[in-house]
Structures are given as C-alpha cells and as structure tokens.
Amino acid sequence: MIAQLSAFTKVGPQLPGSNPGAQYERQGVRYYVKGSAVGSEAIGIARAQNEVLTAKLLKAAGAGVVDMDLAQGLPPELGSRWGVASRFIHGKPLLPATGRIVEAVWLDFAAHAWLANRDVIGHDFLNTVIVDGVAINTDQGGGLLFTGQGRLKYPELAFGDMPADVMEWFTLRDTRINPAAWFYDSMSDVELRASARKVLAVTDATIIQLVHAYGPGGSDLRSRLANSLIARREATGRLIEASSR
Ligand SMILES: Nc1ncnc2c1ncn2[C@@H]1O[C@H](COP(=O)(O)OP(=O)(O)OP(=O)(O)O)[C@@H](O)[C@H]1O
Ligand SMILES: [Mg+2]
C-alpha cells in the first residue's frame, strides 16, 4: 500500500531525529511521516523504499517493528515528495533501562544485525520503544543500504549488494563503535542463538518476495539485494554454529 498524504491531516510536529518528519492523522489513526532532506528525489524514493523494506523484513523475522508503508505527496518542509508513514505507537522509552527492557531488546538482536540496522537503538536511545513489554523499533532508516543520514552504507559495492559477512553481529555489541552497545554486550551464546533462530526461519521465498515487492531500484538490483540477504542469513547460521562448538 502507498499512503497518499493528501488524504492525511497534520496533527503534530517532528519528533527528535535528524530527518524532517511530522505527525499526521487519517480516519482517526495517527502516523509518523518522515521525508528525506538529502540528495535528489531519486535518493528520497530509494531511502524510503529501503526503510519500508527493512521494516517488512523485520516483521517477517518476528521482530518488534512499527507498521510502515511508503508515503507519497509529502509537503516541501518534509524534504522529499516520497517518504515513509508508520502507524503511531505509544511506547515507553528504553531509558532508564531495567533488566526486563534489556532482555526485550535482546530478542531481536540478530534480526537487526542481519539487516545491518545499525541505528536500532539509536544514538539518542529513542529509535526503539517498549509496548506491553515488547521492544518495537520505530526507525529503520539506517537499515540495509543507507545510513540513517542517507549516505550509501557500502559505497565500495554496487548499489544493492551487501557484504555477505554480518559484521553488525560484532559491531552492534562493540562499545567502541556503537554508543548503545551496552544494551547487547552481556548477551550469552544461548540468547544470541535464540535471536538468530528468528532470522534462520525466514525463507528464501519470503526474502525474494518482500525485496521484489518493496525494495529500491529495478529488478536486477532487487535480485542482488535478495541474494545478499540470503547469504547474510546463512552467515548468521554459521555464526551460531561457531559459538556452539
Ligand atoms: N510510528 C511511530 N510511533 C511513535 N513514535 C515514532 C514513530 N515513528 C517515529 N517515532 C518517533 O519519532 C522519532 C523520530 O523518528 P525517526 O527516528 O524515524 O527519525 P530520524 O530522523 O530518522 O531519526 P535518526 O536521527 O535516529 O535517524 C523516533 O525517535 C521516535 O521516537
Ligand atoms: Mg531516529
């Protein structure tokens, strides 16, 4: 589904974040709508598709994530005509982090690593919130091919390819690299394996279907992206095999 913003009414301002956004309502339902202030219109569309696809893949892995769709017809102050609209949720912040909150975040660690969703918690710890004890990620702008600020994450690769190694399995837990790494760094092998099982359960057919339905670029790019994600799922399996030996 593509949300046509002409059918929405603005009801609230941007929330803390680096991308232009605003709260909207349609038929009594609230959404957070986010545009892109960087680059061309083509980049705005690709970023939005990249973010929606990340959200759909997270959902396929059973991870906590907002319902998100592409949005069209954004006003000039949102920076681009295309963006994303996510159904608004009222969650509790991650901080102050109790043991229960940290454990809720652990369940989806591997899914976010698989998708290179580096800002899952975010430098301000506001990208994930807790709803009924479940960690729900609200911001997938830093997933897959783009950084949260809209730069290409893998400029050395053809656009659409991702490294077959899941470096985020390590970097998300590295306090020198991720300011939120302390959320993850006491996960045991048992907990790492439990989170990885959610990734391993996503089938090739689901990955291919979602990438072709929602991904950026043409069908060649989408095929390469699906292949990269299948390779990264396999790499996730090898990482937990290595840890159980
Ligand atoms: N669907 C939603 N429901 C509730 N709150 C939301 C939703 N979407 C976004 N938010 C809130 O709005 C803030 C800004 O949105 P988001 O993080 O997606 O924007 P951003 O500008 O890309 O952020 P960043 O600077 O982390 O890249 C989020 O941190 C979150 O607190
Ligand atoms: Mg954010």
Broad structural category: alpha+beta
The major beta sheet can be summarized as: 6 strands, mixed
Helix content: 25-40%
Q: What is the number of E strands?
A: 9
- Ligand inventory: adenosine-5'-triphosphate, magnesium ion
Nearest-integer average pLDDT: 96
Distance separating the two termini: 45 Å
**What's the number of structural domains?**
2
Looking at how many chains there are and whether they match, the oligomeric state comes to single chain
Total helical elements: 7
| Global geometry | globular
Radius of gyration: 17 Å
Note the run of SSEs as H and E: EEEEHEEEHHEEHHHH
List the uncertain runs: none
Which band does the percent of strand residues land in?
A: 15-25%
- Strands ordered across the widest β-sheet: 1-5-6-4-3-2
Protein name: HipA-like C-terminal domain-containing protein
In short:
It comes from Sphingomonas jeddahensis. It is built from 7 helices and 9 strands. The radius of gyration is 17 Å and the shape is globular.
